[in-house]
Amino acid sequence: MFTQHISRRFNKDLEELRTQVSNMGGLVERQLAQAIEAIVSGDSDLGLDVARRDFKVNQYEVEIDESCSRILATRAPAAADLRLIVAVIKVITDLERIGDEAQRVGICAARLASEAQPRDRYDELRSLSEHVQDMLHDALDAFSRLDVEDALRVVEEDKYVDQEYEAIYRQCISMMMEDPRTIKRFMDVSWAARALERIGDHAKNICEYVIYLVQGKDVRHTELEDLRNQVEQASKGS
Amino acid sequence: MPQVWFTLFARLGLLAAAGLGIGWLYGQPVYGLLCAVSIALGWQLLWLFRLERWLNGEKMDFLPEGEGIWPRLFARIDFLRGRTKRRGKRYKALVKQMRQATRAFPDGGILVSRNHEIYFMNHAAEELLGLKRKKDRGARIENLIRDPDFVAYMQAGTTSKAVQIPSPLNHGRWLSCHLVPYGMDQQLLLVRDVTALVQADKMRRDFVANASHELRTPLTVITGYLDALADDDSLADDLQVPLQEMQLQAARMRTLVNELLRLSELESKGPARQGKAVNIAALMAAAAQEAKAMQNCPHDIRVNIESDADLSGEVADIQSILTNLVSNAVRYTPQDGQISISWSTDDDGGYLVIADTGLGIRKEHLPRLTERFYRVEDGRERIGGAGGTGLGLAIVKHALQRHGAKLAIESTPGKGSSFTCTFPVDRIIAVA
User: Fold this and answer.
1) CB contact under 8 A, B142 and A22
2) Residue ranges of the alpha helices (H) in B362-432?
3) What is the C-alpha separation between B180 and B177, in angstroms, rounded?
4) Residue B61, class by beta-carbon neighbours within 10 Å (0-12 exposed, 13-18 middle, 19+ buried)?
5) Do B143 and A144 touch (CB under 8 A)?
6) Pick from A102, B95, B102, B382: most CB atoms within 10 A?
7) Partners of B409 in beta bridges
């Protein structure tokens, strides 16, 4: 899609930009995986490591932002290229927020490590996180492959993540009512779950930018049913 | 000149001569010659026409036969065509076989260009990495396999080692990726599922950690009672010696268990954190003091500090490196020998050297020296009395690894040994 410019330098710039976003995505994926690992294994050092490493994600955001501005200024891109730049600027904002949420989960993990581990070793949280990790991974894949179908699938996944979050939240409340001494711990658990749920939303946003990038349609704030119809129409038209 | 060409020229010559002769009879030799040439040209054109039709795919019932140049050309082309066709078939079969073989291959293989663009992958790679064979052709592999370690590995282009990454597809599975260059600037990426290996390694580590932890409790009870017994004056005299021996062995076992725990702790931790300055000179002095308190210690222990740079790392690790190496040296050096502990730095890194003038180690033992419980069994006696646990050098190796450092051992039997720890530049904190 972005390899037909007469200027080879321009092609290379755009390719570089996409790789940079992928690298940033890879780092964020790892941050998330390690934050969860820290909670499940009760490893406070790992949790703090994750929190400390968030600055790298931020660094990436600044670098990619700069690259985007440079391309906008020197190449004055149009059409698909312009959409790529716009999409990248938006995607990295969401990635940076995911990084922040992972940082939050890491801090929760460090705090939870000093409490007693529950018997189920945070099984629900692990299941929710695996779901969210898959969503993020698929969203970044969809961005790399410019695959609208995959992007749509991730958007549809989000409602299951929301349901899982609801379940954990309710469970936390009932646990806290049962035994007020656990309030501190379950506050942290619900914080972590909340952060994971937000990551799911950010992954969904990334997919919406992919649809925008490929089809030129802004599908934010659309109902799921409408969204599918719109995308199908657009892909028939093209 | 081959026969055919001779015949061709002979025939042309004959025709020209006949034309010339007939023309001369009628008084117009030039026209006669012209006629003959036209006939010859027409004949050749006719053959050319047939050849062109045949090459363009028109069926011929049978190929022209005869000795002339044209029939020979036809026959030759027909032969070449047949050969190409047979070769094509053979290559096709070969390619098919190769395809089937790569499909049956249990490990993933991906061919990538110099810019890391994918242009072929087998089915195993597709399944292991979650790629799409058709869709991902031409895509940059780093855009799809985004693990930071993998990206760094691809960028570095070092092909001697493999990199281990978590599977992008299945949580909890591990893959090992190895880049192998071939051809001009193409690379083959081999992907293997090493989950079983990783798990076995983890199980081994967990087992050692748990076992040594569980052994500690009963041991504490035993030593407690032994100490109480030793203080008891009413104990019969003939039990004193066995009791002392029991205390000695219990103490030895405690050290062993502690070192096992220490080793498994070192193994499971990641690289040592940067930034914390370790005052190596103070640690060296302390190690020398400790050595002097040991039995049968050589009188000549030297501490040479040639650099005032500090080390960045973890104090406990550096301390156990020093203690282990120095106590080893004491154990194998006679009392009139010499031990030197030196620290120096240059542009390439820092060097911690512990050298002795002791018994030395034979060459064949050197590579295996850092293995757990490896003992040099060549009848050499330890000078420093009761020996170590057999874990000392393994601990040193792992503690060094955490700091990105390497251990080099040099030794001459009868003359002495030197243990050199080389620390990388980024672990050296130069004093401004």
Assistant:
1) yes
2) 392-402
3) 10
4) exposed
5) yes
6) A102
7) B419
pLDDT in tens, chain B (432 residues): 578 888 888 888 998 899 888 888 998 888 888 988 999 999 899 989 988 988 888 887 777 877 778 888 888 888 999 999 999 999 999 999 988 888 888 888 898 888 888 988 888 888 888 888 888 888 888 888 899 989 988 888 777 788 889 888 888 889 999 988 887 788 888 999 999 998 998 898 889 888 888 998 899 999 999 999 888 888 888 888 888 899 888 988 888 888 888 888 888 777 777 767 888 888 888 888 888 887 777 778 888 888 888 888 888 888 889 988 888 888 888 888 888 899 988 888 889 999 888 888 888 888 888 888 887 765 555 554 456 677 888 889 888 888 888 888 888 888 888 999 998 888 888 775
C-beta separation of B243 from B250 below 8 A: no
Check: complex ipTM more than 0.90: no
Nearest to B146 among A23, A130, A145 (CB): A23
> Is B205 within 8 Å of chain A by CB?
no
Distances from the Cα of A184 to the Cαs of A47, A108, B22, B331, in angstroms?
18, 11, 125, 54
**Position B180, amino acid:** V
CB A205 within 8 Å of CB A227: no
Contact partners, residue B383, CB within 8 Å, separation at least 6: B296, B331, B332, B333, B334, B335, B358, B359
> In this complex, how many residue pairs, one in chain A and one in chain B, have their CB atoms less than 8 Å apart?
42
Which whole-number Å values give the CA distances from B149 to A99, B146, B163, B199, in the listed order?
18, 8, 7, 20
Partner-chain contact B171 A130, CB within 8 Å: yes
Long-range contacts from B314-319, C-beta under 8 angstroms, 24+ separation: B314/B272, B314/B273, B314/B276, B314/B278, B314/B402, B314/B403, B315/B276, B315/B278, B315/B283, B317/B266, B317/B272, B317/B399, B317/B402, B317/B403, B318/B278, B318/B280, B318/B283, B318/B399, B318/B403, B319/B283, B319/B286, B319/B287
Name the phi and psi angles at A158, rounded to 5.
Answer: -55, -30
User: Inter-chain contact A19–B142, Cβ cutoff 8 Å?
Assistant: yes
Q: Tell me which amino acid residue A106 is.
A: G
d(CA B269, CA B200): 17
DSSP character string of A176-193: HHH-GGGHHHHHHHHHHH
Question: In B, which residues are within 8 Å of A25 by CB distance?
Answer: 146
Regarding beta strands B338-346 and B300-305, do their DSSP bridges make them parallel or antiparallel, or are they unpaired? parallel
Provide the greatest CA pair distance for chain A: 68
Residue whose token pair is 């991906």: B110
A11's enclosing H/E stretch is helix A8-41
**Residue B250 vs residues B8, B210, B257, B336: alpha-carbon distances, Å:** 110, 19, 10, 32
What are residue B421's DSSP bridge partners? B352, B407
Asked if the C-beta of B134 comes within 8 angstroms of chain A's C-beta atoms, the answer is: no
Q: Which residues pair with B187 in a beta bridge?
A: B112, B181
CA distance A224 to A227: 5
> Which SS3 state, helix, strand or coil, does residue B387 take?
coil
Q: Are A58 and A96 in contact (CB under 8 A)?
A: yes
